[in-house]
Amino acid sequence: MVGSAVNGPDSGPLSGTRVVEFGNLIAAPYAGMLLADLGADVVKVEPPGGDLGRGFGPYLGGESAFFLAVNRGKRSLCLDPKSTAGRRWLSVLVDRADVVLHNLRQGAMERMGFGEEQVRRTNPGVIYAVVSAFGSDGPDADRAGIDVVFQAESGMISLTGGPSDPPMKTATTIGDYVAATDVALAITAALVERSATGRGRRVEVALRDGLLAVQSGWFALSFAQGGQPERTGTASPFLAPNQVFETGDGHLALAIVSDRHFRLLCEELELAELVDRFGDNDVRLAGRQELAEILEDRFRTAPTETWVRRLGGAGLPVGRLLTLPEVVDDPQVRHNEMVYDYHHPTAGLQHGIGSPLRFDGRPAQAAAAAPALGAHTAAVLSELGASEEEIAAVLADAE
Known about the structure:
Blueprint: E1 18-22, H1 27-37, E2 41-46, E3 59-60, E4 63-64, H2 65-69, E5 75-78, H3 84-95, E6 99-102, H4 108-112, H5 116-120, E7 127-132, H6 147-153, H7 156-159, H8 174-197, E8 201-206, H9 207-213, H10 216-225, E9 242-246, E10 251-255, H11 259-269, H12 273-278, H13 281-286, H14 288-299, H15 304-313, E11 318-320, H16 324-328, H17 331-335, E12 339-344, E13 348-353, E14 358-359, E15 362-363, H18 377-383, H19 388-398
Parallel strand pairs: 1-2, 1-6, 2-5, 6-7, 7-8
Antiparallel strand pairs: 3-4, 9-10, 10-11, 12-13, 14-15
């Protein structure tokens, strides 16, 4: 394991920006973490029971590994928003926010007194950011949703797997991470605009919409063909060969993106006779299965590393099929500081996945670990001007 968090509390391009996050599980929390990695002061508002993600095991020193993974660099403010004292200090916090971010159910923020119109009365320049399920208006606005539902109703599950496989989702909850990244991008754009105009904005990303957007190529294929594309497993509907192949001791992933690359592949595999038969990508797509069987027969004659060195040395895009522990030990992953060590006050020494964003050659990454529930309640309230007695009252309400 190598790598370390590089951003202190006063560094990063969003330094000086205060984000108030009302987030549960992944979408808003991950967006908040992206903003914290960029230097924002992200105050995570949690009810007495905490973010629902804190209840997901496995646990590391009493802390949810799931929660730790998507809440780096924030401060946790735990209070009861239904209590008089809790609501009062939440109002002060929100009035001073540059960004209010949430992914709560439709109407939840309004019931707490912090819907957009309510917030904007006293903080007109705020960036009010929402991650919703299907959108905040329209026929499905009030529906509950979660990632597997969005994958199902975006068409993603209909495309995942091979022709004879049962329905399957992607391994990660991709809808949450896509929407989180989208809304973080929208927030930064709105902040840039506000710095010039003083104007606040409402920004919103619907989780299902995010999944539609990242399937643009598949929808283009559907529009062109006038129907549902076939499921192709690890293969591509646009290029061939472009898939995972079995080798003598495992698997490799190979992508041939041009006819010139295909000729290079045939040279390296000593299968020159395939150039005349499959020299054009359209022909390769039409005969994809036959071509794949021929190539796989050759790949089975040697170990994965032999093919990776040989084909990679010829400039072809090729890679090993790695498990997560193998990814962690990959030299380039280590070099890029995508795996780092950190110390959590209760969970102890832990490992995390870093930020892919780099500024001036260094990862954009908050230095602080994910907070324990309510770890910063007293500090945040003190910054807002609360007395010791007022802080004690808020803490008592949250117990």
